[in-house]
Known about the structure:
- The protein is mainly α.
- It is built from 24 helices and three strands.
- The chain has helices spanning 23-33, 38-46, 51-71, 95-101, 109-119, 124-147, 163-171, 177-185, 199-212, 256-269, 284-295, 299-319, 330-341, 369-388, 420-432, 437-452, 456-461, 492-504, 532-549, 554-559, 565-578, 583-590, 595-601, 604-618, and strands at 467-470, 473-480, 484-489.
- Strands 1-2-3 form a three-stranded antiparallel beta sheet.
- The model is unreliable at 1-13, 216-222 and 225-274 (pLDDT under 50).
Amino acid sequence: MPETPSPSSIYDAPTRYVSRLGAHHFAHLRAVAEGLDIADSARRYLGIGHGHEARSAHLQTVESVRAIARRRGESAWRLIGLTIALRLDASQPTLEDFIAERDLDGWSKSDVAEMYAEAYPTDSRSQRRQHLRERQLALIRTIQNLAAEQPLATDMVSGWFDDVTSKKLISAGMLTLGDLNRKIARGGRWFSALPAIGKAKAQRIAAHLATLLPRETRVEKPVFALVTTPSLFGASPSPAPTGTVNPLGGMPALPAGLLTTLSEQLSGSYSPALPPRLLAARNDAEAVEAWIKARAGSTFTATAYRREATRLLLWLQYERSGKTLAQMDVGDCGDFMAFLQNLPAIWISRTRAKPGTPGWAPFRGPLSHTSHKQAVIIVAALFTFLQNAQYLNANPWPLINQKTGDDRNRSLLDSKALSESAMGQVLAFVEKQPPAPARARFRFIVMFLEAVGLRSAELLGAKLGDFTLEPEGWVMQVFGKGARNRLVTIPGQAFEALQDYLEVRGLGGIETAPPQAPLLASTRDPMEPIGYQALYEHVKGWLNKAVTASALPSNERLKLAGASTHWLRHTFGTRAVAREVPVDVIQAQLGHATIQTTMDLYGRAPIKRRVDELGKAFG
């Protein structure tokens, strides 16, 4: 029964992580006692992001709680911090699997436990371990009831954050938890005055504060509800009705006040500039919905369209005294573009509130250059559609300069891809892990996508019947972006990874596997597909562990902290360019509509050609 390293090592640590004990410290200890990895538990409960910091924070927490237990004369104080592994025979199912296998959902817990114990009797050693685990958890709960403090907004940050973070917060004027709460609630880059604190670290600080003060009242923003007077922000808003239905198809983006105005339009107080002959829409909301149904080719696109249309309608109501789409002129278009570039603070959500409630606003933060550009493109497309459908008799957007230019801060050579050394270390990490369905699935995803370059949706939607052996080699038919079919080739690396993965799933090889089986499957059922969120979390989790355990330079590890499934598609593109695959071949494999898109994303190919040609001329 191994014990965690001696807590005495904490005195060598330069950073103090525990000053006052709160409920979150005990939640961390319980999670670790139940088998959660120390780093994962520290990230969840202590707001610690790095492995070595998590270890130090854990040891300090153990020492602090042990000290209290010793002072109370608790004979079992040494149990705090112990790792008590409850090992099961490999052939022995978990209690949950036992219930599912025998259809015992309707039975009481005591009956199920009795049947499980009869089917799988425990030996004395296992019983002792279980007894120790129960004593350990009971002791943690006892000490928590005695010693856990409730953080208050008036508490100094130094009591609840590590001393390094506390010094930075105090130097920036955030002395108490309340000060920090108000700063975060204002939104934007609230952390800009904190040295060496980036967006990721700031998010951990905010998440930890939310853990400390879950019931703390956040700084409220005005409810985004329309009023009957032109001075929308200057006057008190009318009470927002409840129970209204979103006319834009269910997206939680239109607050209740806007719905009030739309319902007035429905009653006949408004009509478009021309009788709609091609579009059966009685108001702007219905016109937007018709546009989405006609033009959005996917759920993702529909969501983006609704979001931008909603923001425009809100802007017209709040900033243009309730203008409709038909009443927008050239000046309004220019002002809206400027508004998107410099969002007022009042338009940015300060809390995670639901639309139409205090704290909600249409934007989560200032728009990036890419988001601003995309918003303008979507809004202009909406007006073009509505004019063509004769809902509007004029479209002001073509009359203004819609170009937003390039992002000055974006490097043309940046790519969200894994370098060859990073990929090597990721695969080396995977090979060191014990065989398991999750390991096999991740290995397949990495090696297959690096060599094929599919999108996540294409990987999730594929079936084994999509593969065929042609005279030229193995190919796969893909139903891709824009509802378009294309063929992708399956190189040797991808084919071998597929065969290995199918073998682990018990399906043999691609030649004999059921054609209806999903390409990517649940770890529990080889015939059960998985969803996007499961894929994202699976790949993200494995990549994070692999990168953390790697010997990569710190700057590369920092870059790869944001790596996800889509990075593997970019890895294919950059790797293909580096190995001098013709750009038109890469374009066809990736399914880009134009070769220019491929060249823009993977610009090193034209750079190499320019260097070679100019070197010949001026070398």
